[in-house]
Design the sequence.
């Protein structure tokens, strides 16, 4: 294994010099999580991006996350070390298609998962993340909700609320390919474990789970639970963060496919280069930004 100490020290030094903050999603490589100022879920990262005093935000995540930071903090320089790190699910929804759907359901409120492009957010009434989706949906007076773009989360939502959910056909390839049989096999091998899965997983997986929640919700659930072992249905980067927080517990990731190649595209080398050059900068067209900001602000206000 490569020793990352030297490059991590270089990154920390440069970060101070440039008045930069490093934000990392839980799915980032362990050595990136270890050098970050804040490691969290999509919601926590949005909050940090909105509140930071730093001049530069190095966003270790995927494009829509850096874009959300640019929407929330337009006067800051937002860098995405690997600009090609996109989220395939976010790219499955387009603003034109959403406008058409809105025409078909004029009474529906439009809830956009943060995993969307700025253009799609600009067409949404409110955004949500896996951490606040239920509160967001329940904060709306509308009976009908257009939920974009994750069909699995839409299905889950339709089961846990009394709203009529109009789904989009998107999905996360990392979570969607987790199989129920993989989860059940792990349970057979570790019968004393609890099954905790992300709502982006397919419904067959959600059906057999003890808990369905986003990444930050997993920490909360595990914290209050007495179990020693958990089968985790989400991207495997979370293992590093979970193990750090709960060293006495064991976390089993039931499939080797639980890897998001896009999340893993950022590396320490790219972060260092990005701090040296202050590039690549993520920007959003001002008209789109202002509209998208409304949907993000509305989300941040929901308790
Ligand atoms: P959360 O960390 O907000 O649960 O997001 C999951 C995800 O897939 C982000 O890309
Ligand atoms: Fe997108 Fe899924 Fe990767 Fe998250 S894990 S960035 S939702 S493809």
Sequence:
């Amino acid at each position: 294994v490569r020793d990352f100490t030297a490059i991590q020290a270089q990154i920390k030094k440069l970060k101070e010099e440039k008045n930069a903050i490093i934000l990392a999603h839980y799915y980032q490589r362990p050595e990136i999580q270890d050098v970050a100022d804040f490691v969290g879920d999509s919601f926590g990262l949005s909050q940090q991006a909105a509140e930071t005093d730093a001049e530069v935000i190095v966003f270790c995540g995927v494009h829509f996350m850096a874009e959300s930071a640019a929407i929330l903090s337009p006067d800051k320089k937002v860098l995405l070390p690997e600009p090609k790190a996109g989220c395939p699910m976010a790219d499955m929804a387009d603003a034109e298609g959403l406008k058409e759907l809105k025409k078909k359901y004029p009474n529906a409120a439009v809830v956009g998962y943060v995993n969307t492009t700025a253009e799609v957010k600009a067409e949404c009434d409110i955004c949500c993340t896996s951490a606040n989706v239920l509160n967001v949906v329940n904060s709306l007076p509308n009976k009908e909700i257009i939920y974009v773009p994750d069909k699995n989360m839409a299905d889950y939502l339709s089961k846990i609320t009394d709203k009529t959910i109009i789904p989009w056909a998107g999905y996360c390839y990392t979570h969607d390919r987790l199989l129920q049989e993989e989860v059940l096999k792990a349970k057979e091998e570790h019968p004393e474990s609890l099954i905790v899965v992300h709502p982006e997983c397919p419904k067959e997986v959600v059906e057999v789970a003890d808990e369905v929640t986003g990444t930050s919700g997993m920490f909360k659930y595990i914290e209050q639970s007495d179990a020693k072992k958990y089968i985790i249905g989400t991207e495997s980067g979370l293992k590093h963060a979970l193990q750090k927080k709960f060293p006495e517990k064991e976390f089993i990731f039931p499939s080797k496919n639980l890897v998001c190649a896009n999340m893993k595209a950022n590396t320490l080398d790219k972060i260092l280069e990005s701090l040296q050059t202050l590039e690549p900068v993520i920007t959003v067209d001002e008209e789109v930004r202002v509209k998208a900001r409304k949907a993000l602000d509305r989300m941040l206000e929901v308790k």
Q: What stands out?
A: The CA atoms of residues 85 and 262 lie 5 Å apart. The mean pLDDT is 97. The pocket of iron/sulfur cluster (ligand 2) is lined by residues 27, 62, 87-89, 115, 172-174, 235, 260, 262-263 (CB under 6 Å). The chain has 15 helices and twelve strands.
